[in-house]
């Protein structure tokens, strides 16, 4: 009888843990996301574009692609690996952050839209691979980047 109660308690705990793990953070509307990711500067695209590239490099990103004509910049951080997981669990997990920027001039102002995404890749000794992309929507990260871009624009404009 005690054994059955222990089994029932285990399954109840597992079920409740599954409910907690599957809880989603509140969804944001596209306008709320855009408000976090977008900033306008009173400068030309020719000054803003290299300022964005410079800031990405200053905060540790490696530029993958940059095209002034389209205004697209892509960059990625160095990959982080946890070797202990590979040794003890047989699973390799690599985390990396990627960022894209879209720079466009509209009249006398230039808009910059940033998009930071955390990527987690895992692979096991059995050949299974998995990838999880998670948008970063922390306003402080975007505000910090925009402030640094503003400083770089100021320096280039002087």
Can you describe this structure in just a few lines?
This protein has 158 residues and is an alpha+beta fold.
Features:
158 residues; alpha+beta; Alpha-D-Glucose-1,6-Bisphosphate, Chain A, domain 4; 7-stranded antiparallel sheet; 5 helices; disordered N terminus
Task: Explain what you see.
- Helices cover 43% and strands 35% of the residues.
- By secondary structure, the protein is α+β, with helices and mostly antiparallel strands.
- The chain has one domain (28-157): Alpha-D-Glucose-1,6-Bisphosphate, Chain A, domain 4.
- Strands 1, 2, 3, 4, 5, 6 and 7 form a seven-stranded antiparallel β-sheet that branches.
- Helix 3 packs across helix 5 (139-157).
Strand-residue proportion: 35-45%
Could you say which structural class the secondary elements and strand pairing correspond to? Answer: alpha+beta
- What number is the mean pLDDT? 86
Query: What is the terminal separation in angstroms?
Result: 81 Å
> Which runs of at least 5 residues are low in confidence (pLDDT < 50)?
3-12, 16-23
The proportion of residues forming helix, as a percent range, comes to: 40-55%
């Amino acid at each position: 009888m005690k054994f059955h109660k222990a089994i029932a308690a285990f399954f109840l705990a597992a079920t409740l843990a599954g409910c907690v793990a599957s809880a989603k953070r509140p969804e944001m509307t596209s306008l709320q996301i855009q408000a976090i990711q977008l900033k306008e500067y009173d400068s030309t695209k020719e000054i803003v574009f290299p300022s964005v590239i410079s800031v990405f490099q200053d905060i540790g990103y490696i530029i993958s692609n940059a095209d002034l004509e389209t205004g697209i910049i892509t960059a990625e951080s160095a990959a982080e690996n946890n070797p202990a997981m590979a040794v003890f669990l047989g699973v390799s997990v690599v985390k990396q952050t990627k960022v894209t920027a879209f720079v466009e001039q509209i009249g006398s102002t230039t808009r910059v839209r940033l998009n930071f995404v955390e990527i987690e890749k895992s692979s096991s000794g059995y050949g299974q691979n998995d990838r999880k992309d998670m948008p970063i929507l922390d306003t402080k990260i975007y505000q910090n980047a925009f402030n640094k871009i503003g400083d770089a624009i100021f320096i280039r404009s002087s």
